[in-house]
Amino acid sequence: MHSSAPTKDLASSLRSAGWNRSPAASLLLCLMLASAAAGSGLPSGWVSLDGTTDQPCPPSLEIISSDVDELVLRVECPGFMSETVVHEKTEYSRLTFPGFYHSTVEGSPWLPAVRQLIAVPADCAIGLDVALGDSVLFSGSILYPVPAAVVRYTEEG
Predict the structure, then answer these.
(1) Angstrom distance (rounded) from CA 47 to CA 53
(2) pLDDT tens for each residue of 76-135
(3) Exposed / middle / buried, residue 94 (Cβ in 10 Å: 0-12, 13-18, 19+)
């Protein structure tokens, strides 16, 4: 059920998850886990990607180098939590990183993300280069969509 061939490039993945904004003074480093097809292909609980962690472990963010010209970060993701969610008789997989952010664009896949705010002077241009490591493809799952926000008012306002 695993394959080392990625299904699409990072730019396409980011666009499909609603990240079609141009780079700004704060960068969002988003790690995305793609999944396709129907049915329940992911087990519930901790899913190790590196084969060495059997307990939930959050991703790590490390500054490799930093100077006036560039900032190099390394993000490593040893795995993710998978939860089966049933909605209207359809089984979905909801993926999370322990203690981390997830996508919030209504209707897009609920994907875990690592984000880091980075200070960039106002008169500087920024770019982003992403070097992906090994890829793992999980098929046979439908990713849980981000639900619509529900606003509830009380008598107090």
Answers:
(1) 9
(2) 888 899 999 998 999 999 999 888 888 889 999 988 988 888 888 888 888 888 888 777
(3) buried
The C-alpha atoms of residue 42 and residue 63 are separated, in whole angstroms, by 32
Rounded to a whole number of angstroms, the distance between the first and last alpha carbons of the chain is 51
Residue 4 domain flag: no
What residues form DSSP beta bridges with 6? Answer: none
For 143, the 3-state DSSP assignment is strand
The total domain count for the chain is 1
Quote the CA–CA distance of 130 and 94 in Å, as a whole number.
25
149 three-state secondary structure: coil
CA distance 120 to 114: 19
**Range of weakest confidence among 35-49, 50-64, 68-82, 121-135:** 35-49
Q: Counting Cβ atoms within 10 Å, is residue 103 exposed (0-12), middle (13-18) or buried (19+)?
A: buried
Residue 24 counted as domain residue: yes
- For the whole model, what pTM was predicted? 0.64
Residue 95's H or E segment, with its range, is: strand 90-96
> Which domain covers residue 113, as residue numbers?
10-139
